[in-house]
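Re: Re: ligand-bound prediction request (bumping)

Still looking for help on this. To restate: I need the protein modeled with adenosine monophosphate bound, output as structure tokens. Inputs repeated here so nobody has to scroll up.
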Amino acid sequence: MRVVLLGAPGVGKGTQAEILCRVHRWVHLATGDMLRKAVSQKTPLGQKAERAMSRGDLVDDQVILALIDEKLDETGDSGFVLDGFPRTLEQARGLDAILARREVDLDRVVCLTADDDEVVKRLVGRGRADDTLETIRHRLEVFRDSTQPLIGHYESRSILRTVDGVGDIQEIHGRIQSALDE
Ligand code: AMP
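Reply:
Sorry for the wait, this slipped through. Here it is.
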């Protein structure tokens, strides 16, 4: 299957994407992980992305789309879970075009939900470089302004499912699996 995991920072997309990919032998494509690797290796991509990331802003859409296009080439015909991408309408439209060129489509978009207090608590506990309280608040705003509109983009195609992201990790995995099986 080709799946997108949508949801606020800290909602558990990474954890759930890992479980899904282990169970189904799908490829986990997490743009945040790719960007952090590029930053630590000081590649040209890392240099382009570093400032936006440290502020909790989004990296340029065209940079992200080029990155995903390249990774999908490497992924071949395998199923995949997109985690942290798309994050803007422009990225969602770009993804549609990239997949159309490959003559494939998304099977499901799963939107994981949790309230702000819950995700702030999780992010503060995680302690990543961009997990300061100020940056976390900003990332939540960016999510609301830029990423939430994607829900409408996918709802109109009836591939969207909303899943409660609060609770035991395995239990949440079960909910996501049911949403994929529908
Ligand atoms: P994440 O690990 O998904 O929380 O991403 C960490 C940071 O990487 C974000 O705050 C953004 O600065 C950047 N980033 C990750 N994915 C994207 C994306 N799809 N579009 C723009 N910026 C992104």
